[in-house]
Design brief:
This protein has 9 helices and no strands. With 259 residues, the chain is mostly helical.
């Protein structure tokens, strides 16, 4: 046993062949170069179709974020204005004084205030006619409030369709970039005469997958914002309809009192 161990220790270790050493060295260098890739390098070295799709996704992302910030401000202001006007409306103030206050202000009206102003203005206009019954007065005011409410909701929904389109199409646009990237990579590898490995395939596959990732990063905020804003607009629409019904009841009682 002891002699066997001595013989094993005395055995010299043969050196690796030179070809194997070069292969290991080249593999380590290729792995180091692959690890040094960053996103900017992938974008710069991407093929022209993939770069075009990436630029399209960047434009879509900037557009969606502009819509998101603007729509957030518009809906927040509409909620605040609705709260403020409802507080004034149900405080017990006379309708004529409240109407005079809305028309005397040198500013654009919106939301519940615009619905109130349109309904009360039409109600007073029809009431001044002779021989017009209370039903006609109420119907005229209701038509005016519905028309104004529709215009207000249309303004709140402006650009929501574009936001929904960006959110729904961005992943597919990114997928198109992925397909182009893989096609270009495979074509270049097939046309190459040398033997290829993972290090040669990785950059092309990475730029292709980057297009898909960009599509998802564009789509996720757009879809989330669209769902949130659509819910906010729907709640405001319910508030507008409820106020129109309540105000119609008040106008109906006033019309019967005038008879």
């Amino acid at each position: 046993m002891t002699s066997s161990l001595i013989a094993l220790l005395a055995t010299t270790v043969e050196a690796l062949p030179e070809e194997a050493v070069q292969a290991v060295t080249q593999g380590a260098a290729a792995a180091g170069e692959a690890a040094s890739f960053n996103l900017w390098d992938l974008v710069i070295k991407a093929s022209l179709p993939v770069q075009f799709i990436m630029a399209l996704l960047v434009i879509a992302s900037i557009t969606s974020w502009i819509i998101i910030f603007r729509k957030w401000k518009v809906i927040r202001r509409a909620r605040a204005e609705a709260d403020h006007f409802e507080e004034r409306f149900w405080s017990g103030a006379e309708l004529s004084k409240l109407y005079a206050g809305t028309t005397e202000r040198n500013r654009a009206m919106g939301g519940l205030e615009a619905i109130f102003e349109a309904g009360f203005r039409e109600f007073n206009r029809i009431r001044q006619r002779r021989g017009v019954d209370a039903r006609a007065q109420l119907e005229g005011a209701q038509r005016a409030m519905r028309a104004t409410g529709s215009r207000e909701l249309d303004g709140l929904e402006h650009n929501l369709e574009l936001l929904a389109n960006i959110g729904s199409t961005s992943p597919y646009i990114g997928l198109v970039g992925t397909v182009f990237g893989i096609m270009v990579t495979m074509h270049s590898l097939v046309s190459a005469s040398k033997q290829v490995g993972i290090a040669d395939v990785a950059p092309g596959i990475s730029e292709a997958l980057l297009a898909t990732a960009m599509g998802l990063f564009v789509a996720i905020p757009a879809v989330w914002a669209y769902n949130r804003f659509a819910t906010g607009v729907e709640r405001l629409a319910v508030r507008y309809d409820a106020f129109s019904e309540e105000f119609s009841s008040i106008l109906q009682r006033q019309a019967h009192l005038d008879e």
